[in-house]
Amino acid sequence: MADDSTEQREYEVVVVGGGPAGLSAALYNTRLGHSTALVQRGGGRAAMMREVHNVVGVTEDVTGNEFLETGREQLADYGCDLYRDVVSAASETEDGRFRVCGTNADYVAESLVLATGFDDITPEPPLPRTGRGLHYCLHCDAYMFVDEPVYVMGYNDSAAYVAMIMLNFTDDVDLVTRNHEPTWSKETATMLENHPIEVIKEGVTGVRNGSDGWLEALEFEDGTRREYRGGFAMYGAEYHNGLAAELGCELNDDGTVDVDDHGQTSVEGVYAVGDLTPGHNQVPIALADGARAGISIHWRLREFPRDVEAIHESGPVRAEEVPGIPDALLERAVAFHTYE
Predict the structure, then answer these.
(1) Which residue range is the domain that position 282 belongs to?
(2) How far apart are the C-alpha atoms of 147 and 132, rounded to whole Å?
(3) Residues near 15 by Cβ (< 8 Å), separated by ≥ 6?
(4) Whether residue 61 is found in the same domain as residue 209
(5) Is the pTM of the predicted complex or chain greater than 0.90?
(6) Around Cβ 322, how many Cβ atoms within 10 Å?
(7) Does residue 310 fall inside a structural domain?
(8) Average pLDDT for consecutive 10-residue bins of the chain (340 residues)?
């Protein structure tokens, strides 16, 4: 329940999470004429990217933070309200809207987009530097290690499969279990035995970096030193699904939020996009998730066309009722036009 003294900010759409999926959803909703707020705590997986990969039109000298900052600037230009806040609770209001409670304010919306993502579970130190030898996204970063020595850390089926997949890019792959007993299946074990991958069971005792900060080698308990250009940690993910669960959205067994093809959850009016949902964790896919959700929300919220039932109830659309875009966004759109 909201504190009576807490400021309440009301919108048609509120997006929680400022990664690529959240930015995309907010962008579409704003440009489609809905009063929209983006509430983000900062940080996140995208912000950690030293280089943005696989995004057409974005070169690899762009960092994750630069990419996200450009997105926030675009949103502000179009009229989306941006808030830095930590959201800790969510609920449905008596009139069928949704309230999310932040540290600084409460945000109430007709449609809510959850883009809260997940955190990669990291192994215990010692570890290479993130982005300079420690990576989490095979599809983003495998290209960086073509014909280079690579490790994969982990002891489950996912780790074993990633190690075997990396053979598509290099002939020098080690699977490092760090004293953990493997949990992969018998079938996976048979596959591993028939691929040229060495399983290193010893724990890691040290990391050697070059003058450029990139990983050069890992040191092991048995006194050996193995050279690597980089590698991947495969220890799973912790999904930020608390708000979704609190609202009654159905969750999948792995902790992702169950959604349809448009990002709609099991609770009408609540959407989930990006890394919080099943599928590949990629920036272009997150952008597409946000776009699909934004268009779906527009279909749900848009004023026109008024259907026959509504015409019988409210009468024909009057000239003074159109266009169906809030005055503030209308003024922004007119000022934004660059036709001349």
Answers:
(1) 8-119+237-302
(2) 17
(3) 22, 25, 26, 29, 36, 37, 38, 39, 112, 113, 115
(4) no
(5) yes
(6) 10
(7) no
(8) 75 97 98 97 85 91 94 96 97 97 98 96 94 93 96 98 98 98 98 98 97 96 97 96 98 98 98 97 96 97 93 94 92 78
